[in-house]
Design a protein that fits this description.
By secondary structure, the chain is mainly α. It is built from 15 helices and no strands. Helix 1 (about 5-40) crosses helix 11, helix 2 (about 40-75) packs parallel to helix 10 and helix 5 (about 120-130) packs parallel to helix 8 (about 190-210). It is globular, with a radius of gyration of 22 Å.
């Protein structure tokens, strides 16, 4: 298989995944903007509640994400029965986690107050989480089905289901937050209800597609769903919990960076948030390509085709670096124009925020190269079902190197926010180098022997 053929296969799978990732971000942006129209205190509560939900979701999503490489590997070796078994146990573990974690969301108010949150904000955040928490199980099941369908290279339905969810979420937010169209005015609870309804709709669309599409009926995905499969359950658990913790470590890296930026100043924190939002949007492209690389690597490993594993890995890395190079060019060429999309020019602090965020985007040029490489390495390693050592590498790189480097550069060395971002680059670069060394060191020898 030529590099061009690998590229076409990666893009055919990766582009819908990139689109669905961006659509998922649009859901978050819609919630934030519309609750912001309703009230500042309510916005603070929803941001706090949604952030809490997201942290718990990331921790539990490892089981759903483990489905992708396991199904891809089973397909590679032609074992269609194992496809159903692995996916079913991924769904089981997602349900068990979602149910087990709900009490933490239901009684989140005292926890949030103990972390220093204001009484009113904590109470509203608890109101939000008590409703939104009911969406944890559907959200995790969506992730598991997304992994299953992506491994089958049927990612298009994921994109369309997510886009339909954006439309529904916007309409329900308009009705339930503000009380339009004869609906009750529910504020933050309305935003939570809209989110849960959107998750249920998206889950229903994907489940019906997975069960009844003519090309997928042969897998009988929900056949005897109630029957446990202990070997498959153990394998999904073994592969999944390190994925969840790796995501938590990475999310924590950026949360800690936001806290430290707040020590520098409010204006600097606002600029940090804008720059990070732009980085997050571009990261969706790298994440989609990484997921596609996971599937292609899993298929190649399952088939024992190490030449395809090597060719697919080289192509995926090249594509991700090409995207990073284009983003770097845009960040360096028109940073002010990008920042102004997120700020009210009438704000007296707008010029200062624009200038500061533009400086951070210059650092983000380095950030792009490191971040794209590390997420691609993680995707390839998950494809060959290697998750525990990468988890350790990530935790050390992010927390023992990245966070201390950010602190030292920002404060003792007095580089401020620029130094803080340079520290993030250091942590991500170390992770990228170590994870790539892990992949090529372990699997490169097999690929080399295969030619």
């Amino acid at each position: 298989m030529t590099y061009a053929a690998h590229g076409r296969a990666l893009l055919a799978l990766g582009l819908p995944l990139i689109g669905s990732n961006l659509a998922q971000m649009a859901l978050h942006v819609t919630d934030t903007v519309m609750v912001g129209w309703y009230g500042i205190t309510e916005l603070a509560a929803v941001v706090l509640g949604a952030s809490t939900f997201f942290v718990l979701f990331i921790l539990g999503s490892g089981f759903a994400q483990a489905v992708m490489p396991m199904v891809a590997t089973a397909l590679g070796r032609g074992d269609e029965t194992q496809v159903r078994r692995d996916t079913r146990m991924g769904l089981w573990l997602s349900i068990l986690y979602g149910v087990a974690i709900y009490p933490a969301m239901f009684w989140s108010g005292p926890i949030l107050r103990s972390l220093g949150q204001e009484e009113q904000v904590a109470a509203l955040a608890q109101d939000y989480l008590r409703v939104a928490g009911a969406g944890m199980v559907p959200a995790l099941l969506i992730m598991a089905l997304k992994s299953y369908l992506s491994a089958l290279e049927r990612a298009g339905v994921v994109l369309w289901a997510t886009l339909a969810g954006v439309v529904l979420n916007t309409g329900l937010n308009w009705a339930l937050i503000f009380g339009h169209w004869g609906a009750p005015e529910l504020g933050v609870k309305g935003a939570a209800i809209a989110s849960v309804a959107t998750q249920i709709l998206t889950l229903a669309v994907m489940a019906v597609y997975a069960e009844f599409h003519p090309a997928l009926r042969r897998f009988h995905l929900f056949q005897r769903f109630w029957r446990p499969d202990w070997p498959a359950l153990h394998q999904v658990y073994r592969l999944g919990w390190p994925i969840g913790l790796t995501g938590l470590f990475e999310g924590g890296l950026f949360s800690a960076a936001a806290v430290m930026m707040g020590w520098i100043g409010t204006m600097e924190l606002a600029a940090h948030g804008i720059a990070l939002e732009l980085v997050a949007i571009t990261f969706m492209a790298h994440l989609g390509l990484s997921n596609a690389a996971t599937v292609r690597a899993g298929r190649a490993q399952g088939a024992g085709d190490f030449a395809a594993l090597k060719g697919g890995a080289v192509t995926a890395i090249g594509l991700s670096l090409a995207v990073a190079a284009m983003v770097v060019a845009v960040f360096l060429a028109v940073p002010e124009s990008l920042v102004r999309l997120f700020i009210d020019r009438a704000n007296p602090q707008a010029p200062a925020i624009t200038a500061y965020a533009s400086t951070l985007l210059a650092v983000a040029a380095l950030f792009q190269l490191a971040d794209s490489t590390q997420v691609m390495a993680l995707g390839l390693l998950r494809g060959v079902q290697d998750t525990r050592v990468p988890m350790v590498i990530a935790s050390v790189s992010y927390w023992l190197i990245g966070i201390p480097a950010s602190y030292v550069l920002a404060f003792p060395l007095s580089l401020g926010g620029t130094g803080l971002w340079l520290g993030l680059v250091v942590g991500l670069a170390v992770a990228a180098a170590a994870l790539m060394a892990r992949f090529w060191g372990r699997w490169g020898r097999e690929a080399a022997r295969a030619g």
